[in-house]
Design a protein that fits this description.
Keywords: Metal-binding, Oxidoreductase, Zinc. This is L-idonate 5-dehydrogenase-like. This protein is mainly alpha-helical. It folds into 2 domains: 1-65, no CATH class; 72-126, Rossmann fold. Helix content is 29%, strand content 6%. α3 crosses α4. The radius of gyration is 17 Å and the shape is globular.
Length: 126
Amino acid sequence: MVTGHECAGIIDEVGVSCWRCDLCREGPYNLCPERKILSMPPVHGALARQIVHPADLCFKLPDNVSFEEGAKCEPLSVAVHAYSRADIGPETNVLIMGAGPMGLVTLLAARAFGAPRIVIVDVDEH
């Protein structure tokens, strides 16, 4: 199983995305019972020379954004979406459970949203 779901790269060929069910066609494709997720069995992840990915879920990066920066857009968007839903602002203290990659990206988003006090905890003291 090839891991990795945050990726950026060059599109070699464009195919047709397959959106058969009502959920996929109407927008909430994440609720589709047939959904196959990059890096979740049986679909291999992005740590490969080439991958197949739905064209509808590919986005052009601006010329001034590197592939490395582009690959970080997905985890950052998760953190920004969480803060938007939680209504985090300049008067909101934030506790982040877990200092792994998502926790650290969430920390950066908390700073950007102006949280005055941010605490991040983890079971690993390093």
